C-alpha cells in the first residue's frame, strides 16, 4: 500500500457521482486527454480518490468507469469507502439494503441495461465490482522511501497505518463511530484529535464547509453533492483547488444538509 509521490499527488474528495464537476476540476488541475482517451497530467502527477465516487448524485456509473479505467492504466488510485463497499457487495450479488443514495446506482444500472443490454451490463458490473472489492483501506505516500502522507476515506488511527484487517477496514470506511443519535445519524468520535507526529493524514467522508485542518490531518470532503464544493488537495505543494457544485443534488435542506447547518 506504499506509493512514491514522484511528480506530485492530487487528492480528490468525495465526488458522489457528480461527474460534471469532477471533469471541471480535472481541467482546472491541468489534466489532459491522452491518445487512449484517458486523463493524464503533463507533469506526471497522479490522481488519488478518497472513495465515495458514487451514490447520491446523478452519474455514478461514469464516475466508477473513470476510476476503473484510470486505475487500470496506472494514472489514478482509489481507496475503499463506505458507499464503495456497499456497492461492491451489491454488485457481488449479496443482499444489501440500498439507501442513502445507493438506490440511485441501482436505477442507473437498470437504465444502462435498457440501453446496452444484459451482457454488456454484466461485464461492466463485474469490472466495477473488482475495482471496489479490491480497493485498499488506505495508501501511504512516500518520498525517497520515507512515509509522508496517508489517505483513508473516513480517517485512520496512528497504530493502524500500514496494517490491514477487518477492523481497520471498517475504521477507514466509517471512522470512529460511537453509535447512532435519535435522528439515525452516526455519532462520530473525533479520531483526528488523537493524531500525533509529522505524518499527514488526508481524509473525507464527513462533509465540512471548508477543509478542516487539525494535528496534521486534512478533511477534504466539502459536501459537493450537498451543494458545496469538490476539493483537490495537491501534495507536496500544499494547495487546495475547488470546484463549486452546480446544484444541491442531495435533496437535503436545512438541518438535514451537513454543510448548511
Ligand atoms: Mn463516506
TrEMBL record:
GO terms for cellular component: cytoplasm. Residues 9-209 form the Calcineurin-like phosphoesterase domain. One of its GO terms (molecular function) is phosphatase activity. InterPro entries: Ap4A_hydrolase, Calcineurin-like_PHP, Metallo-depent_PP-like, MPP_PrpE-like. PANTHER family: BIS(5'-NUCLEOSYL)-TETRAPHOSPHATASE PRPE [ASYMMETRICAL], METALLOPHOSPHOESTERASE. This is Biotin transporter BioY.
Amino acid at each position: 500500500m506504499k506509493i512514491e509521490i514522484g511528480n506530485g499527488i492530487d487528492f480528490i474528495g468525495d465526488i458522489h457521482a457528480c461527474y460534471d464537476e469532477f471533469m471541471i476540476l480535472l481541467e482546472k488541475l491541468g489534466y489532459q486527454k491522452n491518445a487512449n482517451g484517458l486523463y493524464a497530467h503533463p507533469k506526471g502527477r497522479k490522481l488519488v480518490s478518497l472513495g465515495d465516487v458514487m451514490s447520491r448524485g446523478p452519474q455514478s456509473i461514469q464516475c466508477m468507469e473513470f476510476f476503473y479505467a484510470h486505475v487500470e492504466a496506472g494514472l489514478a488510485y482509489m481507496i475503499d469507502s463506505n458507499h464503495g463497499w456497499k456497492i461492491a457487495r451489491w454488485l457481488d450479488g449479496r443482499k444489501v439494503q440500498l439507501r442513502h443514495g445507493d438506490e440511485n446506482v441501482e436505477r442507473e444500472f437498470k437504465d444502462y441495461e435498457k440501453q446496452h443490454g444484459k451482457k454488456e451490463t454484466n461485464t461492466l458490473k463485474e469490472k466495477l465490482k473488482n475495482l471496489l472489492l479490491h480497493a485498499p483501506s488506505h495508501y501511504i505516500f512516500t518520498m525517497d522511501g520515507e512515509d509522508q502522507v496517508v489517505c483513508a476515506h473516513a480517517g485512520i488511527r496512528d497504530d493502524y497505518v500500514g496494517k490491514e484487517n477487518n477492523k481497520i477496514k471498517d475504521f477507514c470506511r466509517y471512522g470512529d463511530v460511537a453509535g447512532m443519535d435519535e435522528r439515525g445519524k452516526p455519532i462520530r468520535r473525533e479520531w483526528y484529535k488523537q493524531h500525533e507526529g509529522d505524518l499527514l493524514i488526508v481524509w473525507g467522508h464527513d462533509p465540512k464547509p471548508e477543509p478542516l485542518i487539525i494535528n496534521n490531518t486534512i478533511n477534504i470532503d466539502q459536501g459537493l453533492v450537498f451543494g458545496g464544493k469538490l476539493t483537490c488537495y495537491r501534495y507536496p505543494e500544499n494547495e487546495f483547488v475547488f470546484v463549486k457544485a452546480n446544484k444541491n443534488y442531495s435533496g437535503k435542506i436545512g438541518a438535514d444538509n451537513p454543510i448548511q447547518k
